[in-house]
Specification:
alpha+beta; 280 residues; Metallo-beta-lactamase, Chain A; 8 helices; seven-stranded mixed β-sheet; single chain
């Protein structure tokens, strides 16, 4: 897909599984299981959705998914897909790891930043050796000192090697990264999660990460139990879902396993989505 001079490719970062109740919070199971069928462990299938963007002479990777640094017990819990699906997707797009100039993390939970690093023998090193990694300063500070409630979402091996390499580009709020690509904070899931907005050729795409992890989370009260500030999520969703629909923007979901992107449309007071193919 092209947005003016900006070239964009969807990257499949592989499937994984999380508890359905946690993914839908206060929504009763008889309602959410009509949208997505849980397995025998009450988990639902998700996907780590990423984007490759070529703009201003740079290769930009948005999100790095789960990565490959998983032991057998962790793979059993989360059902992480074998192999390295993100790298395979990158190679299909004609780009190799050392050709990535920027990595944008919406936040540093393991399912969004796990591929930031990789094992090299007995060391963990940055996966993208030539890249600067972009995240909100507050998010990195929180990742290094998480609360008891969200400690299980942050794995130090996904961000400490980036610090040691001096490869972080830390942001303070809304900022343009390169022409046409900017980030804006979308608090609720945590305090410093950011969305990525890409505009060109009269079109706009917004990667909203865990604000709308799947298309089933479009209704305002359908909020994950993982969110630290669910009431803030509600207000952030109220604003962004309306804006995306009003302006006809393309919305990229963080973890929808079937439709990574869609346009949103309001009908009779409810928002519906129409799938969009990013690799046309």
């Amino acid at each position: 897909m092209h947005l003016g001079d900006i070239e964009l490719h969807y990257l499949d970062g592989g499937t994984f599984w999380l508890d359905g109740g946690a993914m839908f919070g206060v929504v009763p199971k008889p309602l959410w299981e009509k949208k997505t069928t849980p397995d025998e462990r009450n988990r639902i299938r998700l996907r780590a959705n990423s984007l490759l963007v070529r703009s201003a002479g740079k290769n930009i990777l948005i999100e790095t998914g789960n990565g490959t640094k998983w032991d057998a017990k962790q793979r059993s819990i989360y059902g992480v897909e074998d192999g390295d699906p993100l790298m395979k997707s990158l190679e299909r797009a004609g780009v190799f790891a050392d050709e990535i100039d920027l990595v944008i993390n919406t936040h540093l939970h393991f399912d969004h930043a796990g591929g930031n690093t990789r094992l090299a023998g007995d060391r963990v090193v940055p996966s993208f050796r030539q890249a600067q990694y972009v995240v909100q300063r507050g998010e990195l500070e929180h990742a290094m000192n998480p609360t008891a409630r969200d400690r299980g979402s942050y794995f130090a091996e996904n961000f400490e090697p980036i610090s040691k390499a001096g490869a972080w580009q830390l942001l303070e709020g809304e900022q343009e990264i390169v022409p046409g690509i900017s980030v804006v904070k979308i608090p609720g899931h945590n305090a410093d999660i950011q969305a990525v907005r890409i505009s060109g050729g009269g079109k706009t795409l917004v990667f909203v990460a865990d604000l709308l992890p799947t298309r089933h989370h479009i209704p305002l009260p359908w909020i994950m139990a993982y969110d630290l500030y669910p009431v803030t999520t509600l207000e952030t969703k109220r604003h962004w879902v309306s804006e995306i629909a009003k302006h006809g923007w393309i919305c990229v979901f963080g973890h929808d396993p079937d439709h990574a992107a869609a346009t949103l449309h309001e009908r009779d007071g409810k928002f519906e989505c129409e799938a969009a193919n990013l690799n046309l």
